TrEMBL record:
This protein's name: Sulfur carrier protein
CDD domains per the UniProt record, alphabetical: Ubl_SAMP2_like
InterPro entries: Mopterin_synth/thiamin_S_b, SAM_domain_containing, SAMP2, SAMP2_halobacteria
Pfam families in UniProt: SAMP2
Domain of life according to the entry: Archaea
Amino acid sequence: MQVTVEVVGGDTHEFDAEGATYADLLAELDYSPHEVAVLVDGTPVPEDQAVDADHVQVVRLIRGGS
C-alpha cells in the first residue's frame, strides 16, 4: 500500500506503508510523535494505529512561550 505523507508547510513524501503504523511513518521522516500530529481527512489519528489511508498530513506542533 502506497501512502502520500504531506508535511504541512514542508515536503511531500511517498512510502510503502504495508504493515506500518503512523509512528513508523513519522520515524521515516525523523519526527517524534511528541512534536507532530498525524491527520487523516483532517482528524487526528493515534500513532500506534495501522496505516489505513492513502493520504496523511503531518502537522508540526508549535512550542514556546514563557
